[in-house]
Structure formats: structure tokens, C-alpha cells
Amino acid sequence: MYSESELAGAVEAGALTPDAATAFRNYVAASRATPAVDEEHFRLLSGFNDIFVTIAAALILLAIGKLGGSLVEMLTGGGPEPRVIGANLIGGGAAVAATSWMLAEYFTARRRLALPSILLLLGFVGGAGATIAGLFVINCQWLTDTLHLTSQVAQQRFGGVIAAVAGSLTAAAAWVHWRRFMVPITVAAGALAVVGVSVGLILSLIPAAKDWVNAILLVGGIATFIAAMRWDMTDLERRTRRADVAFWLHLAAAPLIAHPVFHMLGVFDGEIGAPMAALVFALYLFFAFVALAVDRRALLVSSLAYVLWAMYSLFHQSGAVELSAAFTGLVIGSALLSLSAFWHPMRRAAVGMLGDLARRLPPTQQGALA
């Protein structure tokens, strides 16, 4: 399987002519009766070797993390529990981050293996974050005494500041990794780190904001969605790495939008009645319209659990106690399969309702061969 970015790279390298690449895309679109852009391709596996390398790399990272943490714990001489935890975070995190970077130099920069590259990115960013967190944890008591943080409120605010600083440095580590390897998921990881930093800062400055966490996360999700759309609009036909970056940003934005909205409605607070179920279905239809318009399915997947619960509650209250789950699965599954089967004509209708905005969205027709 060859991705759109690889086809574009082949054209740039002169291995394929632009006309040949376009003819190939037209052939695939005609054979599948849908434009390639609607398939929402992204690179995850190029072969079973990706899985093989990922398993091996995961084993190495786990072992290196354990060895690194034990070494630093031994060098620091143990002590109170926070000191031991901090030592393990520093040693394990630094070892995992360094090993992930070295492995990425071959498997990402040279071999371009998708799944191992994602693992190594997560290993580097997670290791960097653990190292930074460990530095704060191991010095926690010293910082508390030096800054005279005696009240609980002061300690909570300081904890929020630490979380924000750690998140900022982790986002910086993700940016450095992006500049070197340009793994598409890196931008989404950085966006999530920025959202985490923002939440940490708000909670540290305004402790009462803990009651607004869902609203804050919703704002972060909308901001991430806007960032995803900016990447999408720079490659409407989804032929370059920019489309892959947008895919992961949409995947990060969707739960940050869906979960806070439904939690604020109290969907999981108990069995819901018909009015609440109707509201859940209406929201899901709105998300479906947005998904069709932007040609991304992440919002539908992130919202699915709430629709299933609403439908299940309705069947359960109607008396179909034993078959509620079966009926729910049948109705929702059939609806989703129908949406998949008729995605292209439904998307054409949805985009047609948006007027001039349609020109800034992925095309509903496969580009013809010039």
C-alpha cells in the first residue's frame, strides 16, 4: 500500500510524472466509486515488519526505562518515597527518551516505518515529560521549604504552576522531535501538551476553576479542531504529510469536544429520559454534519458511547430490558454502516449547503486528469 504522501514524493523525485500519478488516483477513485480524499487514508502499517519492529522497540524501551530508573535510584542513595519516585522518573525517562531518539534516527529518518515511528515519538515525548516531572518530584520538599508553601491553597497553586512548566517543556521536546523527524502525530501530541499547560495554569491561578474543567477542555478542543482545519485547508486533496498531521489533530480534538459536552449535559449521571435522549441524538446529528463537511470521522467515533447509552436507556425504559443492548447495537450499527456506504452522496449534499465555504473544504469530486 502506498500513501498519498509517498505518491507525491515519487512525483517530486521524478520517479512518476504528475500525469501518471493523477491517472493512478483517478483509477483508484473509479474502482472504489468514491474519491480518494473521502477514504481518510493515514499511514499506520506498511507491512507486518512494522508490528515486529514495534514489539521489539517496546521491549527495549521498557527494559531501558527500568534499568535507567534503578541506576539513578542507586546513585541518589534512596531515601523518602518522593525522592525514590523522582529518581526513577529521571533515570527511566531520560533513558527512554535518549533510546527513542537513537532508534528513530534509523527506523524513522531512514526506514520511514509508520507504527514504530509513532511508538518512538511517544517514547521520546513521554520520556522527556517523565524526566522533567522527576526533577520536580525529587526536589519537591526542598522547593516547598524554600518557597515557604505552608498553606494547602499555596501548594495547590504551586502544583498547577509545576504542571504548566512541565507541560511547556514537554511541548518543546515534541517540537524539537518534529523539526528533526516530522512524524505527523507529533503536532497532535504538542497540541495536547499545550491544552494541558493551559488547564494547569488556569487551575493554579483560579482554584475555583476546577468546577469549569469541562468548559475549559471544550475550549481547548475547539482550538485544536481549528488548528486541524488550518492544516487540512493547506492540502484539500490530502496528498501530502499535512493531511496526516490534520488527521491526528482531528483525532486529538474530537474527545476534547465530545466528552466535555456530553458530561456537562449529565448523560452518564443515570438513566436518561426521552427529552435528554433527543438532545443527545440532535447533537450527534450535528457532529455528523460537521464530520461530513470536513470529511473527518473522529467526532462520530468520540461521541458514539453517549449515543449508545441514550439509545440503550430508551429501549430499557420501553420494556425491552433483556434485549436493550441487542436492539441498540442493531440500530446504531445499521445507521453507521449506512452512513459509511452513502458517505460520498451525503457529503456532497452537506457541502452543497455551505455555499462559498465549500471551496475551503476537501473536494467532493476526484480531481480529473488534466
Automatic annotation (TrEMBL):
<feature type="transmembrane region" description="Helical">
    <location>
        <begin position="245"/>
        <end position="266"/>
    </location>
</feature>
<feature type="transmembrane region" description="Helical">
    <location>
        <begin position="158"/>
        <end position="178"/>
    </location>
</feature>
<feature type="transmembrane region" description="Helical">
    <location>
        <begin position="84"/>
        <end position="106"/>
    </location>
</feature>
<feature type="transmembrane region" description="Helical">
    <location>
        <begin position="212"/>
        <end position="233"/>
    </location>
</feature>
<feature type="transmembrane region" description="Helical">
    <location>
        <begin position="185"/>
        <end position="206"/>
    </location>
</feature>
<keyword id="KW-0812">Transmembrane</keyword>
<feature type="transmembrane region" description="Helical">
    <location>
        <begin position="272"/>
        <end position="292"/>
    </location>
</feature>
<feature type="transmembrane region" description="Helical">
    <location>
        <begin position="299"/>
        <end position="317"/>
    </location>
</feature>
<keyword id="KW-1133">Transmembrane helix</keyword>
<feature type="transmembrane region" description="Helical">
    <location>
        <begin position="51"/>
        <end position="72"/>
    </location>
</feature>
<keyword id="KW-0472">Membrane</keyword>
<feature type="transmembrane region" description="Helical">
    <location>
        <begin position="118"/>
        <end position="138"/>
    </location>
</feature>
<protein>
    <recommendedName>
        <fullName>Membrane protein DUF2157</fullName>
    </recommendedName>
</protein>
<feature type="transmembrane region" description="Helical">
    <location>
        <begin position="323"/>
        <end position="343"/>
    </location>
</feature>
